[in-house]
Amino acid sequence: MKAKIVAVGLAHPFEVGYDQAEKLLNQTVNTLVDMGVECSNANVVMHDLDTVQKAAEAVKRIDADVLLICIATWSEDHHLLDLLSYVDKPVILRAYPAFDTGSLCCAHQIGAVFTDIGKKYEFVYGDADNHKCAEKTKQIATAYTLANCMGKVRIGAIGGRVKGMTEIAYDEFSIKQKLGARVVNLDEKEMLNLVEQMSDEEAEKLLEEKKDMLKCCKVLSKKEHLLESMKYYGAMRALADEYDLEALSVKCYTTYMGKVCLGYSILAEEGVVASCEGDVTNALTMKLLYELSEKPVNNTDLLYLDEKANTILFAHCGSSGFSIAEGDIELAPVRLAETGVCSRFLMKSGTVTAVNICGHGDNFRMAIMKGEAIPCGMEFPGNPVKIHFEKSVEDINQEIMDNGIGHHWMVGYGDYVEELVRFCKIKDMKCFVI
């Protein structure tokens, strides 16, 4: 997923700097493009109704999530109001340092108008080629692109949630309102019927189709369990295709432990995120991180604090995508049940963002932590990741309890704190940066 921006200029012919408006617009766009941002230039500097209409037509032709208004000089604010009557998109007001152009005071003026009419806006101030400004613009736009992306997501909830985990009971209204996604509730019989219809020969064929993906894996599970896992993968893949699902969650504990885990790992490599134990909300948390990182996301529990090393161990049974593995991958029986197939491996080192979403109604909330994944052993049979934090892990532990955050943490590679905080702001969602 990439942020998609369209940029338009705004200036007044009577003001100092009007002759530089097009240059500022081009420089601003080029700086963003050089950073890898998908920023299109409408090539219009608005100064009257005719140019406003030309800008609107240009914006309509461009698939963008955010409108970047490059304010070169003081300008009549109604031009922007007119533009938004034609194309109402999220707006970033971009102002430039100069004592005689009025760029900054125009941005302040428009901000006051937008506040009075209830139009949300973002603001960036600095030179056109300033990379910090470009980075801030990218972060803002990414949050809006993420919000638009999530609004199109459909998640399949297969069998509901695990009993005994009231915390993960999903609120479809809050999910739609705050995350944008729609829950597709599926009876587990739909999955089971597909599993039962697949013969061992068909499962063998499916296994052969995935041999390149699985060639790096050492198989420790029984062949019968491997074929059973491929049948569950085939069933979940078929349901994802039939219902156009980008995320899944199966009530795995305890009935389907070791049956769906390998399928989750394969689906992760194919772009479909899947969470354990029927936790629909955290499957969507995985989707958020997947879109931001464009990598598989690790579904974990927060397990153990090492106060001396200031690290926390996160892990679950083993269902993450293979491409975030460090070293050997084993397809082995799942812990506790000692049956089936799960994907056991250690996680890559690097900067990670851990996110939990839980709650209902107005108390729907996101918690975010950033740290550094460091080398660790197979301290928990599954996909353990040990994260070192700058903040005291004792304080982190207390904040989690103080805010009722919950026990499932989705871990994605990269630093996405700013983008997720902005996403929560856009969606009027509670947010805790821990």
How many angstroms does the end-to-end distance come to? 26 Å
What structural class do helix, strand and pairing data support? Answer: alpha/beta
Task: Give the CATH architecture of the largest domain.
Answer: Alpha-Beta Barrel
Strand arrangement within the widest β-sheet reads 11-12-17-16-15-18
Main sheet makeup: 6 strands, antiparallel, barrel
* CATH class (first level) name of the largest domain: Alpha Beta
Mean pLDDT over the full residue set: 96
Shape: elongated
In the predicted model, the low-confidence regions spanning at least 5 consecutive residues are none
Question: How would you describe the overall organization of this protein?
Answer:
There is one protein chain. The protein has 434 residues and is of the alpha/beta class. It folds into two domains: 4-150, Rossmann fold (3-Layer(aba) Sandwich), CATH 3.40.50; 154-433, L-fucose Isomerase, Chain A, domain 3 (Alpha-Beta Barrel), CATH 3.20.14. Helix content is 38%, strand content 27%. The protein contains 14 helices and 19 strands. The strands form four sheets. The protein has a six-stranded antiparallel β-barrel with strand order 11-12-17-16-15-18. The chain has a five-stranded parallel sheet with strand order 2-1-3-4-5, sandwiched between helices. A four-stranded parallel sheet has the order 7-6-9-10, sandwiched between helices. Strand 1, helix 1 and strand 2 (38-46) form a beta-alpha-beta unit. The chain is elongated. The two termini are 26 Å apart. 50% of the residues are buried.
